[in-house]
Amino acid sequence: MKDSICVKRKRVSDYVMYGLIYACAASSVLLLVGIILYVLVKGAGQINISFLTNVTSVLRGTVGIAGNIVNTLYIIIITMLIATPIGIGAAVYLNEYAKPGKLVSLIEFATETLAGIPSIIFGLFGMMFFAQTLGLGYSLLTGSFTLTLMVLPLITRNTQEALKTVPDSYRSGAVGLGAGKWYTIRTILLPSAMPGIITGVILAIGKIVGESAALLFTAGSAYTLPKGISDIFTKTLSSGGTLTIQLYLSAQKGEFGIAFGIAVVLLVIVLLINAATKLLTKKFDVNREK
Amino acid sequence: MKTNQSIMYSSRHHNTSEVTAKYIFLISGIVAIFAVCSITFYMFLKGAPALPVVGPLDLLFGTVWQPTAQVPSYGILYVILTSMIGTGFAILLGVPIGLLTAVFLTEISAKHLTMIIQPAVELLAAIPSVIYGLLGMMVLNPAIYKLEKLIFVGKAGHQFTGGANLLSAIIVLAIMILPTVINMSVSALKAVPQSYRNASYAMGATKIQTIFKVTIPAAKSGIMTGIVLGIGRALGEAMAINMVAGGSVNFPLPFNSVRFLTTQLVSEMSYAEGTHRQVLFTVGLVLFIFIMIINLILMAISKRGEDDER
Amino acid sequence: MEQKTKISVKDLNLFYGENHALKNVSMDMKENAITAFIGPSGCGKSTFLKTLNRMNDLVDNVKITGQVLLDQEDIYGAEVDTTTLRKKVGMVFQQPNPFPMSIYDNIAYGPRVHGIKDRHKLDEIVEESLRGAAIFDEVKDRLKKSALSLSGGQQQRICIARALAVHPDVLLMDEPTSALDPISTLKIEDLMEELKKTYTVVIVTHNMQQAVRVSDDTAFFLLGEMIEYGNTKDLFAYPQDKRTEDYITGRFG
Lengths: 290, 310, 253
What we know:
The complex is a heterotrimer of chains A (about 290), B (about 300) and C (about 250). Chain A has helices spanning about 10-45, 50-55, 65-95, 100-115, 120-135, 140-165, 170-175, 180-210, 215, 230-235, 245-255, 255-290; strands at about 55, 60-65. Chain A is mostly helical and about 290 residues long. The termini of chain A are far apart. With about 300 residues, chain B is an all-alpha fold. In chain B, strand 1 (about 65) and strand 2 form a beta hairpin. In chain B, helix 4 (about 75-110) crosses helix 10 (about 220-235), helix 6 (about 130-150) packs across helix 7 (about 165-190) and helix 10 packs antiparallel against helix 13. Chain B is flat, with a radius of gyration of 26 Å. The model of chain B has no long low-confidence stretch (mean pLDDT about 85). By secondary structure, chain C is an alpha/beta fold. Chain C has ten helices and ten strands. In chain C, the strands form two sheets. A six-stranded mixed β-sheet of chain C has the order 6-7-8-3-9-10, with helices on both faces. In chain C, strand 9 (about 215-220) and strand 10 (about 225-230) form a beta hairpin. The longest helix of chain C has 17 residues, at about 180-200. The model of chain C has no long low-confidence stretch (mean pLDDT about 90). The chains are: A mainly alpha (about 290), B mainly alpha (about 300), C alpha/beta (about 250). The interface between A and B is large, with 87 and 85 residues.
């Protein structure tokens, strides 16, 4: 009898590979933990009420990111107000109205392509088109329009996925009762698809918060707060730096305190958004099981 | 109670909202097409004018970039090379690590370990690039500087970069593409039918042999998709590497301060004027063309992957 | 007593692309009666049922020739408003498909589609329909609960109630009990007896015993053709066509 089956075959190269594999896997966790810890350690000290509610002003001697927070909120709200209806509309068209053919392929190709364009190109386009050609200059509106194009594919894709999971029997049932297509969409399909749509919206907000390259040449870097009720609307036409832009500028200027403070705020927002998405997808899956 | 109603068209009011809705949705769909066309159009519109002025060959193959000199020179060869080499090495560094992590997650890891690593990867993907840049400046650059001092001690003729150089940029890029590569590879590996693995085990192969000789080759197309996606992301990254790469136009060597196509735009767009500005638009066009080529390759690969599966 | 004809089909042909799925079907269905369609799988009985409320319009590549007269109006005429058609001709599907809403909202959906907004009117209609489907007493205390929380048999009766809520003349039922347990099946068959007093019922069934128990007239379909049609008792006792006889006696299908 030759090879006994009771002796375990050991290959040195296997051990080496296992070692490498474990090392690589560990590195992603270590990386993440390292990043979070470092940012928290360096930045937590910066965070206090004053930092979050004041605007940096040499005159008043204050240091704060309130202006940037407000700018970020503006950009999120305006972008989502525009991108959400268009994104959902496109998904509804693709899933409910369109017949397979050239137009559908073209729309899907365009959406895929938009998803693959890096933010710096969007920034360049935004600067050329919205700022210069349309004359909006450095402004929150310019930034929002630019980001709308960026998050559009995200919303369209998520809404499409959500609509696909709505059972066809709902559609037949509604049509059998004499309901028109749009009526069916707004009374049954969209409500059923809501969790998926909301997930897409939250993911888009996450992307907006983290965006920098597309805003550098479109929304600018100012950080004043609106001065009154009427200023709330006119502010959209003036330049405004978001949290990410301010982080970048502060880091370039060597103001690392501010930079790390902002980093902490950004990390917290990102973590919250991530958690919210997870919760929603879990709830969505549970609903689907029923 | 009967309807006793004729089924012929009586009122049309209920139909106008239906028809309007259909057109509104159609228009929403077309917005994407319109956007892509506009972007492409503008890139070419703004990027083309500088070409006849500077001369495409001088632009693309010139190595001297001095836009503000008395006699300006607009050669971006080194910049193009930096983007290509920087991206290439980032891939060389990031893909193996990403792939092995994906292998760990799908083939080796126990449930509780996956529950730690999977969310970690997702979070890494969500971190804003400026934070990577910030950490690069604060942690990576000093470390690379130490390395630089060690290697080049006493060697005259080396321009010290303080750690802000190609090597730092490559490391940061590699880290940033990790989540992309990991996610796509995990999908691809999960899609490999268990029967392939079983057949391999049944022949007496070890787990490692099975993974590398059977599973990974079977997941090739999905993994390739991940790699191409990673290339796209690395080529398009601007802010993070702007903070760690230095910013002088040099031949891409690891310890040289360098400029990428993207950082070229970030650095100079704010103050460029006249021809200088137009040349920057052309740089944007070059970048755009690179990205579009990568995207088209990506779509071709994923489509071929779908066709193969049928 | 001679009953009126509610639906009259003349030379109906249906094509799915190249596939000639229904061949020259002609028949008259009586008002306030239950007409059953039987036949082996794939014979076209469900397809034919769906031509009666133009649900086939939703499928790509479908071509239909011939006439379907509902109260002497051709439902395939150029001027026909399909939403009114589907108000007059309701449908219950094989798999119960209540909407993910409360029981009340499910029943009220149809009336709301057709413009009824008044709360009191809707309350009336909901109760009337649930009674008509013999399920009011079982659900009257939980009208606001989700319809998905009911059993399969109850869900199907909710779907029937939902179809009744728009006050149709005709009720089409596509294998309504094939997904249900025997007890629910019998409950729904009893219901059909009641329903025919007010409505014209057309049902597709693959269960011959059900056709015998429930229907007044039966049509036998095979490979897209209607082979034989007549009074149920007569058709089953003395089938005229050999193919009908073979099917009924179980030689195929």
